Amino acid sequence: MKKVVAGVDIGGTNTRFGLVDEKGKVLAEGHLKTTDYPEISGFVKALGAGIKKLLSGRKDISLAGVGIGAPDANYHRGTIEHAPNLAWKGIVPLGDLVKKELKVPVAVTNDANAAAMGEMVFGGAKNMKDFIVLTLGTGLGSGIVIDGKMVYGHTGFAGEVGHMVVVPDGRVCGCGRKGCLEAYASATGLVRTVSEMICESREESVLRDVPPSKLTAKQIAEAAEKNDPVAVKAMQYTAEKLGFGIVNSIVFSSPEAIFLFGGLAQAGEILFKPVREYLKKHNYVLFKNTVKILPSGIPESNGAVMGAAALILNELS
Ligand SMILES: [Zn+2]
């Protein structure tokens, strides 16, 4: 009988889960609406039933464990703690509850750490011991691997590069402080940059025709591809802020590569090129030409599920 694990990606709106084999192949998938479950007990029951349904009728496979990626998750404790984007308040003992429900080992970590595990087990970091994954979505998450080990730190929350201050007294961040990297280098940050540039200049741009609340990072990236001057400047500005965060991350862990994952990373060369140029100019001399800036080697479509599966596979091996 083949052993498989379940990878679970809990988001503010949707939860996706899948059965994944040791090679990273997703054998079956399901999803839940996270917002349908205001109580964690109801959510765990529904998730357990969903995973059992994927397993039912398949006598060739057995469930060896469950890996979960969730916002504000604490790996050490298997908990979700004070997540602003989830209905479950306070400290939620998610790992213990799922373990009770499915009677297999469970590991929980935040979504960016799960992405980094996915990169290490199935993706572009298979042969690397030192690398950083930055997830560029609504916010900016990071997973830091040093000497083959995920860095969790004293609290279990290490790897919050998104809240590294890059502009003292800068833009207000969702965390309540000012000038954090994620307020600039994320899909939302890019939209904010374009909105500011449109207000402050008279430069022509197709983006002027889009109502500010409808503006998306994807539209901006597409406009930049077509050389829209405001979009190009905004991408450049975003890349410089991201580059600033990256050179500051490099000095403490000397990674072999930085992987960019998530919606904004889909912009491709229009983002990667100015980031690489920034590094050429501003990277500390000892690390010049030692760090690759790479797209994730995990497919965007089920990367989060694969990452969560990689987390538990790594524990079981
Ligand atoms: Zn912040």
Roughly how many Å is the radius of gyration? 20 Å
CATH architectural category of the largest domain: 2-Layer Sandwich
Overall helicity: 25-40%
Top-tier CATH class of the largest domain: Alpha Beta
Mean pLDDT: 95
Query: Which geometry do the CA atoms define?
Result: globular
For the record, give the distance between the C-alpha atoms at the N and C termini, rounded to a whole number: 17 Å
Write out the CATH superfamily name of the largest domain. ATPase, nucleotide binding domain
Q: Please provide the ordered H/E string of secondary-structure elements.
A: EEEHEEEEHEHEEEHHHEHEH
- The largest beta-sheet arranges its strands as 3-2-1-4-8
Low-confidence stretches: none
CATH topology term of the largest domain:
Nucleotidyltransferase, domain 5
Portion in beta strands: 15-25%
